[in-house]
Amino acid sequence: MSLLVARNMVGGYGEADILHGVNLTVAPGQVVVIIGPNGAGKSTAMKAVAGLVRLKPGSSVMFDGTEIANAPAESMVARGLAYVPQERNVFPSLSVEENLLMGAYARPSAAKDGLERSYAVFPDLAAKRRAAAGSLSGGQRQMVAVARALMLTPKLIMLDEPTAGLSPKFCTLIFDKVREIAASGIAVLMVEQNARPALAIADRGVVLAMGRNRAEDTGPGLLANPEIGHLFLGGNAPEEDAA
Ligand SMILES: Nc1ncnc2c1ncn2[C@@H]1O[C@H](COP(=O)(O)OP(=O)(O)O)[C@@H](O)[C@H]1O
Ligand SMILES: [Mg+2]
Prior knowledge:
- The protein is an alpha/beta fold.
- It folds into 2 domains: about 1-75 and about 155-165 and about 190-243, Rossmann fold (3-Layer(aba) Sandwich), CATH 3.40.50; about 80-155, no CATH class.
- About 35% of the residues lie in helices and about 25% in strands.
- The protein is built from 11 helices and 11 strands.
- The strands form 2 sheets. It has a 6-stranded mixed β-sheet, with helices on both faces. Strands 1, 2, 4, 5 and 6 form a 5-stranded antiparallel β-sheet that branches.
- Strand 5 (about 60-65) and strand 6 (about 65) form a beta hairpin.
- The longest helix is centred in the last third of the chain and has 16 residues, at about 170-185.
- The radius of gyration is 18 Å and the shape is globular.
- Bound molecules: adenosine-5'-diphosphate and magnesium ion.
- The site of adenosine-5'-diphosphate has 10 residues, from helix 1.
């Protein structure tokens, strides 16, 4: 059964709609990757699910059997929905551990278990628990943001461009961690500009363009689709180039 079923999401930031009927479905343990050009509405679609963008009547966001369209953003963590925005929201002057603890503010009694789980996924952070987050590399800061979202064992974690600006080494690491998180039963919905490697680890890929679903398939299916390759993946598939 699906955990998240967003249907016909219509809305935006003011009068003009940015989303013109976006659909998103994610099942537990599944990695779903959203790709598409700049300005397509990928971040807006995630914010809409997270309660940060107003949706118009007729839009539906079913999460774990409950309609949550336009529910207050502050209610999402308690529902089991964690969101890591594109703009980094790590507090640089706080330590790694203090940053992680902020992820458990809604349920302080769960903080100790949360830290254990987050450090189990990101052992490098355990070694740096007392370091100021601002002293970390971009890749490590991104791990802090993801680890914080894991503090209250979410059912769904939404990551907006988690590998933006990271070295290929850290991209691989983040994608490995995403698969590991999904293997633990958590659903992952991820926006990515590094479209090819992201689709390579995705169960499903969704192409958004101009606020609408443009295509959807398995990750490998989208990668093998020549039209998608030309329009959205920056040219030929690697095997086509080799041919
Ligand atoms: N806070 C905002 N206020 C008004 N317009 C916005 C805001 N954020 C994004 N937009 C507009 O919404 C459209 C979609 O943006 P976005 O969802 O960020 O695209 P993507 O993540 O696919 O690059 C763009 O035209 C962008 O300018
Ligand atoms: Mg974006």
